[in-house]
Amino acid sequence: MRSVCGLDVHKDSVFLCFLCETGDIFENVYGVLTHQLHGMCRDMRKHGVTEVSMESTSVYWIPIWRVLEPHFRLKLVNPYFIRQLPSRKSDVKDAQWIAECTLKDLIRGSFVPPERIQQLRQYDRRIFDLDAEIVRKLSKLDAVMQRCNIRLINYVSNTDTKSYKEVVRKLCEGVTDPEELIKVIFGRITNRHGRETILAALTGVVSDAEKDVMRQLRDELDLAEKHKQECMDKMLHICKTYYPEELRRLMTIPGIKERAATSLIAEIGVDMTKFPTAAHLASWSGLKPRNDESNKKIKSRRITHGNVYLRKTIIECAWGASRTKDCFFNRFSFHQTQVRKKNKMKVLVAVARKLLIAVWHVLHDQTDYRDFGADNDCDTSNAESKG
Fold first, then answer.
1. How many CA atoms lie within 13 A of 310 on its CB side?
2. What does residue 329 show for φ and ψ, rounded to 5 degrees?
């Protein structure tokens, strides 16, 4: 006799509902401490539960999943797909509704990667957080420089250049003489804008407080860079130890290098049986145009929501692939933007989707990437419909 369970997960409590095919219902509330979760697991086994479904509430579902995974068939459900019926909203009824949907096979579980891939994901998403933190710190550092009326940012490409960093280092050491600061400026910058202009940009009024703030921001940037490198080294070590062939094959695709390959493995794993077709993976990533049509009128073709980390990585790879000479993605991008005059950003999303489909085939077929040669794709416009 089939018995299922629905869990409504919160930060400090778990509302549980057992539901049997005979119509028997058992409801209870548990805490979220480890011994309480193990007690909940024992109660579920005593009632003969075989399937458990829970909503993906923030990160609160993760420890519950780890405790229950060895004993039950679990489903992680997107709350969007099991919206509660009107006027039936309560925590207990939420758990009952999840259990009822599970018993009637109305819900499908989300993709939850194995433990090792989850570890890779933690490192990968930590890198994204560190990148955002580095950008914020550089912005704050430049604000301090502007306060001192040092306008070097007007003549360099960005705040992450070597010349800019060297000037900050000199200022932190107490060097404020423009003649000394200009010595660490790259020669091409001086030649392009003129020595007098750069000297004027380096002339400012720097107080002791601003030197201290710049030094602290510089130390924070160095620490963030160090942590980022540690995460990248850990990811690379795991991939080279457990997924060396998959890492190598992904790097045969144009636009995908070491960092992108490790990020792709972290986000989608290496087992493509979780995605029956390449279209499933494209849809899961949010790169597939939505289907929003009514009365034969198309309301929207915007891409859908999906894995934002995967989408950011693959779109960055698409930039590189569209600039790689003599490859399909470069020819496709050129044809769409220059011949058909399509919007460049929309074409970039299309390139990213095709790139992700190539990733699926490389991992699913366990083969290296083979590019479409000039003899194989006579017309890139036909390739668009095939991709």
1. 23
2. -65, -35
Q: Distance (Å, rounded) from C-alpha 167 to C-alpha 150?
A: 10
Extract the tokens encoding 49: 């539960």
Angle at 23 between CA 18 and CA 26, to 5 degrees: 30
The conformation of residue 157, written as its DSSP 8-state character, comes to: S
Using DSSP's 3-state secondary structure scheme, residue 54 falls into: strand
Residue 238: Cβ within 10 Å count: 19
pLDDT, one tens digit per residue, over 200-246 is 999 999 999 999 999 999 999 999 999 999 999 999 999 999 999 99
Q: How far apart are CA 8 and CA 10, in angstroms?
A: 7
Total residues belonging to the chain: 387
Query: What is the β-pairing status of strands 14-20 and 3-9?
Result: antiparallel
pLDDT for residue 113:
87
Tokens of 175: 């060097």
For 66, phi then psi, to 5°, come to: -65, -35
- Please, which residues have CB within 8 angstroms of residue 249's CB and are 6 or more apart in sequence? 362, 363, 366, 367, 368, 369
Q: What tokens were used for 373?
A: 């040669």
Whose CA is closest to 170, among 124, 139, 204? 204
CA angle 99/104/109 to nearest 5° reads 70
13: exposed, middle or buried (C-beta count within 10 Å: 0-12, 13-18, 19+)? middle
What DSSP string runs through 85-140?
A: PTT--SHHHHHHHHHHHHHTT---PPP---HHHHHHHHHHHHHHHHHHHHHHHHHH
CB burial of 66-82 (b: ≥16 within 10 Å; e: otherwise) equals eebeeebebbbbeeeeb
**Element holding 386 (H helix, E strand):** helix 380-386
What rounded mean pLDDT belongs to the chain? 88
- In angstroms, how far apart are the furthest CA atoms of the chain? 88
